[in-house]
Amino acid sequence: MRKGRVMLCVFDIETIPNISLCKEHFQLKEDDALKICECSFEKQKEKSGSEFLPLYLHEIISIAAVIGDDYGQFVKVGNFGQKHENKEGFPSEKELLEDFFKYFNEKQPRLISFNGRGFDMPLLTLKALKYNLTLDAFYSQENKWENYRARYSEQFHLDLMDSLSHYGSVRGLNLNGICSMTNIPGKFDVSGDLVHAIYYNPKISQKEKKEIIDSYCQSDVLNTYWLFLKYEVLKGALNKEQYLGLLNDFLEKFPKEKSYSSVFTNALEKEIREFA
């Protein structure tokens, strides 16, 4: 049951192919991780016309979130699972889930995502089955029209892809394309289809891999947060002055030492100048 102020959680996950499951599923004999990924993508494309693997063949390696207050004001951005980093740098999948689920069950935030209903939450709940974890807040249903699983309830989970595509009436929308149109940075150095190549690259240290992938995941939620603010303007929930105030606060508080920092700084400063 939600009590008091409801925080925002703009979230995103990054995944890689699960090597052992892919070998079994596609009956592969290769041992090299990258080769297994490539063969899995090829076989999946032959089967379905798309390289995108079934959810049960994904492994979650990063969960990032922008946390905001109930007015939409930026509080912080970061990654879950930081308390559980092992000697190789990455927390285990179970540790990531435990940390995120603990936050979710306790805080019951308003979720903001891009395709979170179609990918992130279904995968997270499938993984909960694997580890016998509880996500009771997600399944709580005091009101059948207002809960996390009610598709049209933007107060519990606003999936911007769902809302901007008019719930599937429009096909082909993606976060990067919308960001490009709206002068939000979008993807600028890494994209989701490269994450596995970074993770399984033996020439990159575990520490560097984690920094690259976690920072990329953070940049995605920063993009989604900014798009959310624009969506609030579209709906009339924010006026021009409120929007600019939230952008200035965003500019002041987000990390300045990340690979994405200068790109977001320049884009935010430009947006503030043009709309002031």
TrEMBL record:
Coiled coil: none annotated. InterPro entries: 3'-5'_exonuclease_PolB-like, RNaseH-like_sf, RNaseH_sf. This is Polysaccharide biosynthesis family protein. Residues 50-265 form the Predicted 3'-5' exonuclease PolB-like domain. SUPFAM superfamilies: Ribonuclease H-like. The lineage of its organism: Bacteria, Pseudomonadati, Campylobacterota, Epsilonproteobacteria, Campylobacterales. It comes from Helicobacter pylori GAM260BSi. Transmembrane segments: none annotated. GO terms for molecular function: nucleic acid binding. It comes from the Bacteria.
